[in-house]
Write a structure and sequence with these properties.
The chain folds into two domains: 124 residues, Nucleotidyltransferase, domain 5 (2-Layer Sandwich); 73 residues, Nucleotidyltransferase, domain 5, CATH 3.30.420. Helix content is 30%, strand content 27%. The chain has seven helices and ten strands. The strands form two sheets. The protein has a five-stranded mixed beta sheet with strand order 3-2-1-4-5, sandwiched between helices. Strands 8-7-6-9-10 form a five-stranded mixed beta sheet. The radius of gyration is 18 Å and the shape is globular. It starts with a strand and ends in a 32-residue tail after the last helix.
Length: 227
């Protein structure tokens, strides 16, 4: 099944095309502020590189979050639009799961994205050939998460949140996914498509990403004391 995968849940957006176990092409978007302007050209670039057109696609795969509210909204809108336009199925998988999909490690795995300050979006997995979820994605303080996981010498951390907090993690005895094993999230989504065909979205019009946090205008404003 020829599938286009896209993810813009973090500062690095990515697009990939795969056919079964073959990854045909990928494109990484490295400018965090311009996902709205760069994802469509990235899709076209990877299609051109693979000598394919939108009409050749048989499925669309998208990262369902958590992560950047704006980034998730952009990827979701593009994925739903392509699914409708082509009349092909839409599949959605947690963006955090895509960090370790296809890259099993020794012991358990924790994928983390930055949620600002000392908070992260995190999910834990039993890292086997077929990735198995231990705890679903959530937004949590890094210190609370590490305390819950206990001794960290059997844990491998990955994702941009792990890179941000790498010093703390290494001091606590944790391992980090090596840079050469880290793939753009879209490639991981294609691995999840092969492993979990049940990820198909049955009600495409009403489907929404897993934001875990409201957009900035809806968040309560901190109180300010009088001068």
């Amino acid at each position: 099944m020829l599938a286009l995968a896209l993810d813009s849940s973090t500062a690095r957006g990515s697009v990939a095309i795969g056919d079964g176990e073959r990854i045909l092409g990928e494109h990484v978007v490295r400018v965090p502020a311009s996902h709205s302007e760069s994802m469509l050209p990235a899709i076209q670039a990877v299609l051109d590189a693979c000598d394919l057109g939108v009409g050749d696609l048989e499925a669309i795969v998208v990262g369902s979050g958590p992560g950047s509210f704006t980034g998730l909204r952009i990827a979701a809108a593009l994925a739903k639009g392509l699914s409708f336009a082509r009349g092909v199925p839409l599949f959605a998988y947690p963006s955090l799961a895509a960090v370790f999909a296809g890259s099993p490690v020794d012991g358990n795995a924790c994928a983390m994205f930055d949620a600002r300050g000392d908070r992260v979006y995190a999910a834990t997995y039993e890292s086997t050939v077929l990735l198995r979820s231990l705890a679903p994605p959530r937004r949590v303080c890094l210190g609370d998460l590490l305390a819950e996981l206990g001794p960290l010498d059997r844990w491998t951390f990955g994702g941009e949140g792990a890179m941000k907090h790498s010093t703390v993690l290494r001091k606590a005895g944790a391992r980090l996914l090596s840079a050469e094993l880290t793939r753009p999230e879209a490639v991981g989504l294609l691995c999840l498509l092969r492993e979990r065909p049940a990820g198909r979205v049955l009600d495409v019009p009403s489907w929404q990403p897993e934001y875990l946090l409201p957009p900035a205008p809806e968040r309560p404003m901190p109180s300010r004391g009088r001068a």
